[in-house]
Design brief:
alpha/beta, Glutaredoxin, 2 domains, five-stranded mixed beta sheet, two-stranded antiparallel ribbon, 48% helix, elongated
């Protein structure tokens, strides 16, 4: 008889523990949502707030051009660093973000030979390509190249990191009238 009275008590305790655990998970997702989803949000906002590339290459300012994709894990990892650079330099440098899944940007993808993402191209005031970064980069490395742009020191270098995402054909690469990215 003792085991018969323990079973309902154990089941009740188990239910309380499960409900408590679910509450903690939900609370964590709500409270820390910015931390969990920040990179994805940043990538989407980059495309939406981007300067049109044609304008960027004609307004006599250096240009930071990044090719990215929403599905690219390395792009998501780099997003907070790129956002910090954008916040600091956006008054002096054009920031252009082109989503490789958007067919609208196919001519730029071909022109700048994008095979892996993220790919960042830095251009001087006259629109001349100075530096190309492919893959995951340290923020300091990009800052140094930006400093060369500001001092108008030509560098013409290509920096490749093995951590990048290869471009693939995706079925969702439709042009959306609401999406700049």
């Amino acid at each position: 008889m003792k085991s018969e009275t323990r079973e309902p008590l154990l089941k009740a305790n188990l239910k309380v523990i499960i409900i408590f655990f679910i509450a903690i998970v939900i609370f964590s997702l709500v409270f820390f949502r910015n931390l969990f989803f920040q990179s994805t949000y940043l990538l989407k906002s980059f495309g939406e707030l981007s300067i049109d590339p044609e304008i960027a290459f004609k307004n006599n300012k250096p240009t930071f051009l990044e090719f990215y994709a929403d599905w690219c894990e390395v792009c998501k990892e780099m997003a907070p660093k790129v956002n910090a650079l954008k916040d600091e330099y956006e008054k002096d440098i054009n920031f252009v973000f082109l989503n490789v899944d958007n067919k609208k940007w196919a001519n730029y993808i071909q022109k700048f030979e994008v095979n892996g993402i993220p790919q960042v191209n830095l251009f001087d005031r006259k629109g001349n390509l100075q530096t190309t970064f492919i893959g995951k980069q340290e923020e300091l490395t990009i800052r140094e190249s930006i400093a060369h742009l500001e001092r108008e020191v030509p560098s013409k270098e290509k920096i490749l990191n093995s951590e990048f995402s290869s471009l693939k054909e995706y079925k969702n690469n439709e042009i959306s009238p609401r999406s700049h990215g």
